[in-house]
């Protein structure tokens, strides 16, 4: 059995998830991990990893390396993808590829010339609950889709230092929902109208961001989507999706900690949603990285392309502009 020789760059939360999942795949050999932090590299001690490196270039110099998983900070993604593509390595890169559309377009040209495979990490496309919605829409079970509703709320905001460098709510958090809005009904978006405020913590506004938002999306066929976000939901990680159409409606509701319901004379008590993305999307991360491995080994078309990453960023930038000017913004206005 051929094994894909792969390296992991970045051993933060996401990098550790991908590393552990890769180590469970039979047709994968993790030959190296890389992180500039000695403390982060300690995570790979005792695992089936041949080399632990501090320098990205040293990772790419490993002759037998065939593919790389990039989980480093966002501001490194474009440079690391470009370097890996020029070195002929297949790439899985966490979102976003960059926060500048021109830079992304330049990198995608290099990827195209290099003829390597680039997959962007939008893990929610691989969630079983959302995939059921996607399949139902595709198979016409709800007729013609009219309206998509997406709710995405975190249990608590990240640190202010993280928020300062995140690109803002729309490019850090809502970007997943923008991708789902395209993916779930397989339609392209024409226009975005966004409203938002810092309601859970005034300090977030002081660093130039918001924590609560509503976004209205119009597709080119005039159907619509509505997304609502919050950085802080007291009851946990709220992840719901609904598509309403001419023949009916389909919903994907929260995945709960357990399915027990307690009925008493005082009412009904049930479990809260799973606490955060690490738990809620644990299975989706596994399916996602297996898909990447199989795509490379079997020379398939990538399921989440660099173009998908570009479009999600473009929608996010349109949302940011809409918030600033308090008007709908067409994607053609964002280059």
Question: Could you give a short description of this structure?
Answer:
37% of the residues lie in helices and 25% in strands.
Question: Describe it for me?
Answer:
The N and C termini lie far apart (45 Å). The strands form three sheets. This protein has a seven-stranded mixed beta sheet with strand order 12-11-7-10-9-8-15. A six-stranded parallel beta sheet has the order 3-2-1-4-5-6, sandwiched between helices. Strands 13-14 form a two-stranded antiparallel sheet. It has two domains: 4-116, Rossmann fold, CATH 3.40.50.720; 125-281 and 312-333, Dihydrodipicolinate Reductase, domain 2. The protein has helices spanning 13-22, 38-41, 56-60, 74-86, 101-114, 128-138, 160-164, 169-172, 174-185, 202-206, 277-280, 282-297, 306-325; strands at 4-9, 28-34, 51-53, 67-70, 90-94, 118-121, 145-153, 189-197, 212-219, 224-230, 238-245, 248-252, 261-264, 267-270, 329-330. With 335 residues, the protein is an alpha/beta fold.
Structural category: alpha/beta
Report mean pLDDT, rounded to a whole number.
95
CATH topology descriptor of the largest domain:
Dihydrodipicolinate Reductase, domain 2
Number of strands: 15
Helix and strand run:
EHEHEHEHEHEHEHHHEHEEEEEEHHHE
Report the principal-axis shape.
Answer: globular
Q: So, the CATH homologous superfamily of the largest domain?
A: Dihydrodipicolinate Reductase, domain 2
The radius of gyration over CA amounts to 20 Å
| Main pleated-sheet profile | 7 strands, mixed
- Return the domain count: 2
Helical coverage, percent range: 25-40%
Trace the largest sheet across and list its strands. 12-11-7-10-9-8-15
**Portion in beta strands:** 25-35%
Count of helical regions: 13
- CA distance, first residue to last residue: 45 Å
Task: State the low-pLDDT regions, or none.
Answer: none
- Class of the largest domain in CATH? Alpha Beta
């Amino acid at each position: 059995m051929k094994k894909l020789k792969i390296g992991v760059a970045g051993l933060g939360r996401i990098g550790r998830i991908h590393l552990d999942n890769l180590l469970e795949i039979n047709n994968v050999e993790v030959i190296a991990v890389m992180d500039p932090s000695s403390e982060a590299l300690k995570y790979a001690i005792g695992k089936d990893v041949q080399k632990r490196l501090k320098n990205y270039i040293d990772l790419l110099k490993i002759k037998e390396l065939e593919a790389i998983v990039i989980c480093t900070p966002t501001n490194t993604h474009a440079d690391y993808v470009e370097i890996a593509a020029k070195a002929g390595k297949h790439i899985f890169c966490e979102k976003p590829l960059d926060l500048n559309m021109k830079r992304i377009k330049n990198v995608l040209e290099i990827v195209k010339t290099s003829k390597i495979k680039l997959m962007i990490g939008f893990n929610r496309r691989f969630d079983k609950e959302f995939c059921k919605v996607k399949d139902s829409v595709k198979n016409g079970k709800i007729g013609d889709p009219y309206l998509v509703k997406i709710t995405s709320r975190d249990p608590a905001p990240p640190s202010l230092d993280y928020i300062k460098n995140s690109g803002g709510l729309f490019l850090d958090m809502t970007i997943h929902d923008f991708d789902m809005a395209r993916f779930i009904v397989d339609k392209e978006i024409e226009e975005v109208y966004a409203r938002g405020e810092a309601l859970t913590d005034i300090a977030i506004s002081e660093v130039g961001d918001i924590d609560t938002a509503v976004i209205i999306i119009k597709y080119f066929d005039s159907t619509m989507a509505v997304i609502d976000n919050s950085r802080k939901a007291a009851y946990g990680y709220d992840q719901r999706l609904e598509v309403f159409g001419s023949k009916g409606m389909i919903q994907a509701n929260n995945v709960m900690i357990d399915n027990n319901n307690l009925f008493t004379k005082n009412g009904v008590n049930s479990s809260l949603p799973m606490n955060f993305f690490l738990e809620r999307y644990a299975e989706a991360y596994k399916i996602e990285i297996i898909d990447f491995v199989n795509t490379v080994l079997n020379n398939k078309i990538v399921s989440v392309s660099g173009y998908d990453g570009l479009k999600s960023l473009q929608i996010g930038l349109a949302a940011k502009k809409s918030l600033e000017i308090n008007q709908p913004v067409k994607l053609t206005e964002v280059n």
